[in-house]
User: Which sequence fits this backbone?
């Protein structure tokens, strides 16, 4: 997994690229989320547009981040899901939990 961090409209955008499968990915992603919370940056968008593969551990990483941010009084939203991710979230009913946006721009503007 390749992780790029940027800020837009007072929102942190985490752009994921490649595969997210657990193991070191889980530690890296969790560390980033914890750091953002400590910095009081609690409006987070996870851009999944360049994600090629996600297994059940990868979904668990995203759910854990969502729960951690929510428990800290923030919000984590998803953007740019490909058809596979949309289908996966639909089958697991996680699409009823996450706020999902077609673009990173829509997701970041939703925090205003």
Assistant:
């Amino acid at each position: 997994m390749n992780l790029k961090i940027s800020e837009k409209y007072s929102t942190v955008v985490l752009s994921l690229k490649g595969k997210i499968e657990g193991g070191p990915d889980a530690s890296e992603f969790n560390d980033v989320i914890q750091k953002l919370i400590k910095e009081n940056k609690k409006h987070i968008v996870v851009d999944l547009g360049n994600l090629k593969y996600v297994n059940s551990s990868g979904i668990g990483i995203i759910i854990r981040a969502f729960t951690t941010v929510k428990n800290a009084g923030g919000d984590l939203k998803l953007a740019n899901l490909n058809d596979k991710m949309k289908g996966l979230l639909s089958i697991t009913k996680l699409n009823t939990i996450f706020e999902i946006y077609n673009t990173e721009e829509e997701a970041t503007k939703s925090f205003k």
Q: What stands out?
A: The chain has one domain: 2-109.
